[in-house]
Amino acid sequence: MTQSVRDELYSQEVASPEKFKFDESVANVFEDMIQRSVPGYGMTLSLMPLIAKRYGQENSKIYDLGCSLGAGMLALHAGLLKETKIIGVDNSQSMLDRCRQNLDQSMPKATFELLHEDILETAISDASLVVMNFTLQFIAKEKRSSLLRKICDGILPGGVFLLSEKIEFSDQCIQSEMIKLYHDFKKRQGYSELEISQKRDALEDVLLPESIETHKQRLAEAGFARSETWLQCFNFVSLIAFRD
Ligand code: GEK
Predict the structure, then answer these.
(1) Residue 53 lies in a domain
(2) Residues 42-75: tens digit of each pLDDT
(3) Which residues of 146-155 are buried (b: 16+ CB within 10 A; e: fewer)?
(4) Is 121 inside any structural domain?
(5) Ligand 1 site residues, Cβ closer than 6 angstroms
(6) Whose CA is nearest to atom 13 of ligand 1?
(7) Ligand 1 center to residue 206 CA distance, Å?
(8) 7 pLDDT tier (thresholds 50, 70, 90)
(9) Ligand 1 centroid vs 22 CA: distance in angstroms?
(10) Long-range contacts of 147-151 (CB under 8 A, 24+ apart)
(11) Residue 161: inside a domain, yes or no?
(12) Number of independent structural domains in the chain
């Protein structure tokens, strides 16, 4: 991976922080930012090779929608036993530029493709595995059902969909305790109260969490036969959905 720079984007007080976007300044610190902000992120990546190994089918495609710097693509590639192309999609050019550098260092060119586009426009076909590792949360809620239907329709028999998300809980008491634990986690990761609160304001109306129940229901409505949580850390989960 390209050299990781410490995330200090929200360390100085500003009158009204701009809405969060995946621009050059975020891409520059992203590896550090996501590792220190998403409990379980490293674990998700470390187990992804097992998912790729089990479900990656020969001559199929694997999609990483919202691939950022390519960490998921590298993890998937590490587990693959068969000839399978990994297609990374992101609509941030700053992310993709760094992603290409990271992949060029570690993966043969023929094994991956990068698409600079909105995942709402991405054509999905012949997929044995589709991954959205903390990306659906940035898509407008009313567009999520059709996106998941498109994904399910593009997955081959025996294929799976991996969906990791920040979630919220319908029980308000659980919600409040999980947020407290999450903030304890961020503080232990070296973020100050100011950084935590300014980042929260910047993400308001940009990162839109939903409950596990809502995700599971949408996955069922999209055509997936079954889905289950395979990893959870406080208010961050990863679900696996089976096409059949
Ligand atoms: C990882 N999966 O390291 N179309 C394409 N890309 C998008 C869109 C969209 N509509 N909306 C957001 N993105 C990665 C981490 S980060 C998660 C994923 C986070 C992209 C956005 O540019 C960013 O790179 C990524 O989705 C979300 O495993 O920052 O919490």
Answers:
(1) yes
(2) 999 999 999 999 999 999 999 999 999 999 999 9
(3) ebbebbbebb
(4) yes
(5) 22, 34, 66-68, 71-72, 89-92, 95, 118-120, 133-135, 138-139
(6) 66
(7) 12
(8) confident
(9) 8
(10) 147/119, 147/120, 148/218, 148/219, 148/221, 148/222, 148/224, 149/221, 149/222, 149/223, 150/124, 151/65, 151/124, 151/127, 151/222
(11) yes
(12) 1
Q: Which one of 2, 10, 22, 47 would you pick to mutate in the ligand 1 pocket, going by the greatest count of ligand atoms within 8 A of its CB?
A: 22
Q: What is the pLDDT of residue 206?
A: 92
Q: How far apart are CA 133 and CA 69, in angstroms?
A: 12
Residue at 19 is within a domain:
no
Q: What is the CATH number of the domain that holds 164?
A: 3.40.50.150
pLDDT in the model for residue 10: 83
pLDDT in tens, 206-223: 999 999 999 999 999 999
Measured distance CA(218)–CA(210) in Å, rounded: 11
Domain range holding 144? 41-168+207-242
Q: And the tokens for 208?
A: 């839109």
Q: Whole-model pTM?
A: 0.96
Indicate which atom in ligand 1 lies nearest the CA of residue 72. 28
* Number of the ligand 1 atom closest to the C-alpha atom of 68: 24
pLDDT at residue number 226:
98
